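Retry 2 of 3 after timeout on previous attempt. Resubmitting structure tokens to design endpoint.
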């Protein structure tokens, strides 16, 4: 939900999107991301499973669905993800980035924590290969902590398996 609109997080470019406007009202938009009535910046899907979200504090968050970057239970990045990530982070090469990785609650908590740490490290290494310095990057794996959805359904577990890149101030 952003402003008065609730829009699909997986919008796919200039295709028709149906967005809910208040209680019981829907509108059809032809946008790559749904706009808000309040003029707030809205999320932009830059590739399947990768969304750039401007934050109210001036920072930016890039949300990455883990299944776009990794196979289930793996910390090896999929080669197709390299170019997708490069496109998403290109405007931020002079900024500090916090890489955070999360899992769902399937499996042992210790395994999930270790997996999330390894995944965050793999993404950070790819960012270094794409021009970020080690000093620009902070890396954390949180395992199954901080879920954004219920782990009771596959849909919720898929939402909880994620990488978040918090893009902050430019680095001098």
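Retry 2 succeeded. Sequence:
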């Amino acid at each position: 939900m952003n402003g008065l609109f609730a829009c699909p997080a997986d919008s796919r470019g200039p295709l028709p999107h149906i967005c809910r406007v208040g209680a019981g009202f829907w509108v059809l938009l032809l946008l790559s991301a749904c706009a808000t009535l309040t003029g707030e910046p809205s999320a932009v899907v830059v590739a399947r499973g990768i969304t750039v979200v401007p934050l109210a504090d001036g920072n930016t968050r890039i949300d990455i669905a883990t299944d776009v970057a990794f196979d289930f239970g793996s910390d090896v990045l999929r080669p197709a993800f390299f170019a997708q990530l490069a496109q998403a982070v290109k405007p931020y090469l002079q900024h500090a980035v916090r890489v955070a990785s999360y899992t769902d609650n399937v499996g042992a908590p210790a395994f999930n924590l270790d997996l999330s740490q390894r995944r965050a490290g793999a993404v950070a290494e790819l960012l270094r290969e794409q021009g970020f310095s080690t000093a620009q990057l902070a890396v954390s794996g949180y395992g199954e902590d901080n879920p954004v959805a219920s782990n009771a359904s596959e849909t919720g577990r898929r939402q909880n398996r994620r990488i978040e890149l918090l893009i902050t101030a430019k680095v001098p």
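Attempt log closed. Residues 1-37 form one domain.
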